[in-house]
Amino acid sequence: MSVLNRRRFVKTAVVAGATFSVAPAVGRAGVSANEKVGACVVGVNGRGSSHIGGWLSDARTEVRAIVEVDEDVAEKRASEIEKSQGRRPAVYSDMRKAFESTDIDIVSTATPNHWHALTGIWAMQAGKDAYVEKPVCHNIMEGRAMIAAARKYGRMCQVGTQCRSSNAVQQAVDFIAAGGIGICTFARGLCYKRRKSINPLGDYEIPSNVDYNLWCGPATYTDPKHTRQRFHYDWHWQRHYGNGDLGNQGPHQTDIARWGLGIDTHPSTILTYGGRLGYQAERNDPNYVDAGDTGNTEVSIYNYGDKCIVFETRGLSVDDSADEELNKLFQSTSGNKIGVVFYGSEGYVVQKGYRHCIAYDKDMNVIQEFTGGGDHFGNFIDACQSRKVEDLNADVRDGHLSAGVSHLGNISYYMGEENHVNVEALSVALENVVSQDDNQATLQRTIKHLQQSDVDLEMYPVSLGPKLEFDPERELFTNNPAANQYLSREYRKGFECPSADNV
Could you tell me how many helices (H) and strands (E) the chain has, helices first? Predict the structure, then answer.
């Protein structure tokens, strides 16, 4: 039976809540409400610094350990933490050693994506509650395993989709649910965000201060070189480690889209078209090969029966990249457009940022604005103390469903990466794709964007992925068995992510 069965989830949560009521306030035996919650942050180079800040700013928590495979970064962060809280955290390169400590109650992780699920599972198996950045998993199988681990070990598992704790977004979702824009069954997520080339594909030395074996973890170990010029961060655009912007920015917006539409399952059909395009023109070199292999321009269409989500990714120039309607809704003609548009029978709601949403009538007059942020880290600690899954604003199950939108869209792209089609053929193909969007209008807007970026669509045509049919309960593709290989990955010995049945 699927771990996504809603009835079973609710039953499990109720039973777990009853069990947890006699458990200590947080995972460590004997901890009291007056004691500090001991935090361990895994991966502190980028987003992890925000995790550290979140725990340092909460009077209930103390950072007692950090895990970082870059020795220079680890020492720098440890010194910063010591200066702030007066106690130097223990420093580890191997998280498994850190998780043995009885001083640690919660683990938060901001590692590269390929480590997210295994970090969370190991932490929960060690009796720690876990806060895991988005996407909560690198593939569908890992998400199933994360849910199973949280329920089996009775752990709180919060996902870093911070908009779930935003007052502005909460109010906007309530407004939609109350019929504020009439009947609403369609939402569009946007990641119009400039992403420059990550430089040529090549063989680059691994930084001497990095434990590369532990950096690779579940992924293939390639020694002694890696393939991108900037070691940190640019892994996002290599599918072996990251998930592109569809899986980087995307889970924030797809999560809001699902939430606002009341969708509590995976899509039943998925189709993506796009490519990694435009960098040849930017470099004035027709033979230029960028080190990334995820799409920088994608349109993904997700059908949920009577509801629909479309997600658009654009990494080239975002100046004047939208049509008149989107420019009006976002109140901007140029620059990044990151957010969600809900299309109702009586108007629109636009999520423009973490702290700002706007409702419009059908004539695009502003009828209401929603503002205010929230404390996602604090909400996690609240739930760790209450021991109630329902107190989490972003439980792992929601994180899995929202990450799954990105994973399924990327799978369609990967399956069709070599299926290059001209604009006319793409237009004809989209006529047969059921969607609540105007598929042709979205295509023309996308083609215009590429042409404005000087993409030669005859030399570098768009790729068209297959329309994939997906069983949301069994979490398997039903019309394309070859696509099922992308639901998991091959794991390195010693770093295997367990299945949902074996956590």
Answer: 16, 20
Residue 440 within a domain: yes
pLDDT in tens, the chain (503 residues): 344 443 333 333 333 333 322 333 444 544 556 689 999 999 999 999 999 999 999 999 999 999 999 999 999 999 999 999 999 999 999 999 999 999 999 999 999 999 999 999 999 999 999 999 999 999 999 999 999 999 999 999 999 999 999 999 999 999 999 999 999 999 999 999 999 999 999 999 999 999 999 999 999 998 778 899 999 999 999 999 999 999 999 999 999 999 999 999 999 999 999 999 999 999 999 999 999 999 999 999 999 999 999 999 999 999 887 889 999 999 998 889 999 999 999 999 999 999 999 999 999 999 999 999 999 999 999 999 999 999 999 999 999 999 999 999 999 999 999 999 999 999 999 999 999 999 999 999 999 999 999 999 999 999 999 999 999 999 999 999 999 999 999 999 999 999 999 99
Q: In whole angstroms, what separates CA 432 from the centre of its chain?
A: 29
Domain that holds residue 307: 166-201+243-373+401-482
Question: Same structural domain for residues 139 and 282?
Answer: no
**Domain for residue 293, yes or no?**
yes
pTM: 0.93
* Residue 388 and residue 305 share a domain: no
Amino acid at 46: G
What SS3 string covers 13-47? HHHHHHHHCCCCCCCCCCCCCCCCEEEEEECCCCC
| Torsions phi, psi for 102 (to 5 deg) | -80, -5
* Residue 441, domain CATH: 3.30.360.10
| Residues 159 and 68 occupy one common structural domain | yes
Residue (of 418, 438, 436) closest to 427 by Cα position? 438
